[in-house]
Design brief:
With 453 residues, this protein is an alpha+beta fold. It contains 15 helices and 15 strands. The protein has helices at 3-34, 47-66, 75-79, 96-105, 110-117, 151-159, 161-170, 238-241, 252-268, 285-288, 294-304, 325-345, 352-378, 414-426, 437-450; strands spanning 36-39, 81-85, 89-94, 124-127, 136-138, 144-149, 179-187, 193-199, 210-214, 235-236, 271-272, 275-282, 393-395, 399-406, 410-411. Strands 1-4-5-6-8-7-3-2 form an eight-stranded antiparallel β-sheet. Strands 10-9-12-14-13 form a five-stranded mixed β-sheet. Strands 11-15 form a two-stranded antiparallel sheet. The longest helix has 32 residues, at 3-34.
Amino acid sequence: MNRTELEMSGPSVSRHSRSVKRRRWGGLRQQWKLLGLFEIDQQHEFYSLTCMMKEGLFAAVQNTIDNPLPDELCEDDYNLEVTQIQKDFRMETYAGPVFASLRRSLGMTEKEYQQSLSSEGSYLQFISNSKSKADFFLTNDKRFFLKTQSKREVRFLLSNLRIYMEHLEKYPHSLLVKFLGVHRIKIAHQRMKYFIVMQSVFYPDDRITARYDLKGCQVSRWTDPAPEGSQIIVVLKDLNFEGQFIRLDQQRPWLLRQMEIDTAFLQTLNVLDYSLLLAHQPLHQDELSQTLSFATLIMRTKKSVNATSSPTHAASPTVPGVVAEEDSTLLSAELNCATITEMHSGNGGMDNTSLEEDKIEQSSRMGTESANLQEFQAQNRRLLPNFKNPLHVIDGPEERYFIGIIDIFTVYGFKKRLEHLWKRLRHPRQTFSTVSPPAYCHRLCQWVQDHTK
């Protein structure tokens, strides 16, 4: 290389380096701009796919509407695969009666579900800073998430569907994400896509001020917040939450207990890397001054005690919820008081013998109610708020919190064990996500305990 070439190489390399940096920064800015929700219009790359999803889901739910559910689920229902052939694609629905039973137990009608999934409004694409390669879609009303899954993840869910349903029946106020459907769509000359339908934890999200994806660790758990005044939706992480607390007051013991119950269940599945989703919004002034009047208790108890069937037995009533220990005691006292008042006011010509008989009957009823309350407490039920999506909503003194556990498909197998060993070497003094299921369970519960008041 001659002198002239040497002189030219310095500025040339410098310009090339600056050019590469500009391209990288431009790419990062473009990714940043893409974070959030986008309407899937006719120019969108997923427009054709989501239209087919809508059409297929409409037909799948219609099949459930036209064929009444069995009184009790059997093994065939868990293994059922229904294929529907449309003009340009084929869609398969897995374990349709099982998921329909779960939807019914949540107080959801099939027509309501069908309308949300197949409305004229376009689906929304959710682009996050997650490492997942899955595609995320939201129904236009933002009530249901649709997420593409790998074949392995779908098989894992279907193989554990029975015990998942049993867990939700035993603990109706579980924070676990509610899976409402599993499907596979096959388009000519394209790869098959598996996807699941889930209830959105963050519904309705009109006034949500911050969203978090929490794993109880430190490594890679920071996300740059959106610029001030930006409409970009950014899901923050553990390190962003430091110095803050979930302020629940009397609801705190319920949350700690439910976290223990749900994470213990996930430990039996040998999974890790699941997330606790958290969002919050300020309560309105009228919501701040809620009183436990008799009328309010009756209204909220009706919402909590759902007369629909259980996820596995049509004859067994279930929730989405009943009353917590302190609220149920108060409810029983008020009901008792109201009953006695009614008895006295309507006594009229009743003799003392009739009154004593009524007291004995009332005492018997109270004994039955007491047994029911013990069952409610064993299932860690609570008085649900008079609000949409009540299973994932907890009202504190000043804030409303949306809380749920998602992403429960990562099994602690050979690859994850190797990843754990590698991360131990790379991050010797920091906490990271890939740990054994018992350690993961304990750590996330500890995080919630340390960050709640």
